[in-house]
Design a protein that fits this description.
There is one protein chain. The chain contains no helices and 32 strands. By secondary structure, the protein is mostly beta strands. It has one domain: 7 Propeller (Methylamine Dehydrogenase, Chain H). The relative contact order is 0.16.
Amino acid sequence: MTTPNGLTILAGAALLTAGFPARAQSTDTGQPYKVIKTDTVGGLGGWDYVYADADSRHLYIPRGDRVTVYNLDNLEPAGAIPDTVSVHGVAVDPLSHHAFSSSRPLAMWDSRTLAPIKTIEVQGGPDGILFEPATERIYVLSHRAPNVTVVDAQSGEVVGTIDVGGAPEQAASDGKGRVYIDVEDKDNVAVIDANSLKVVGHYGLAGLGGTPAGLALDAKNHVLFVYCRKPNAAVILDASDGHVITSLPIGNGVDAAEFSPSTAEAFSSQGDGTLTIIKEESPTEFKVQQTVETKAGARTSTLDLKTGHIFLVTADRISPPPVASAAAGAVAPPEPRRERPQMVPNTFSIIEVGR
């Protein structure tokens, strides 16, 4: 979730799903990743998840009360989805070309034309969001009940809710009827049967990580990358049975993760201004291949499956001077109270990373 001053405090960026059509040719050239473009686009409002629609070539960025839309190829403005109250993310069904916002109510629109279709009333506090291709449904995640609201992507009708036993952060689908959701306050991954909408298991992290805030999946090889904040680590699991394969260090303040099937690389974006790239050399061998310096606050990200580029968002922030807080009956002077950092106007930026 994102505070009004632009601080992204929970959850990750764009939620990666498996099973999309028309994957790119391999983009692994052996060259290191680098920041290839930074566009300062400005605008008011905080931000949270960012989502790349590789088919319609749209980059969606929620900005509090609206979703701003950019051309994914040149980052030129392409439109906006207005009146999306407390919006956090976007998911798109490439089959029906229906897009959805995680807001209350949900907004539904045509992903090609951006024309509105309808709004959908839901409960809880919509935050993360995922398209599940096997059943063609949208999963809306909430830290309060109901934890997951499931919507038919064709009709926009709510088809059910799921209790995952805690606060869900990020989700991934294997495209064959399994959905994985990391549960931040329980330090586990919930496994969902997409057909019955039932929890069929929980995978623990064996004490190697806590507060999981990012999740990515290699669906072909059944590998889960669970990105944790305590400590800063990626705990890598076998998605078939949940056993731990290994763990690797990442940056501080992870908030999003993606996996590229064409390069066998997993990406995680951190608020300390780093993008960690883990290479899957085999389904049992992994290494931190590279750490790309991005920009402080760039903790949400998304992967363009066509080009293999990663997009991140952030803004400059300043800390206001401390404010004295009154303490009733206090003899000694009160301790100064520090306000949260504020976003510097017109510094909101899109960062593009590629080879």
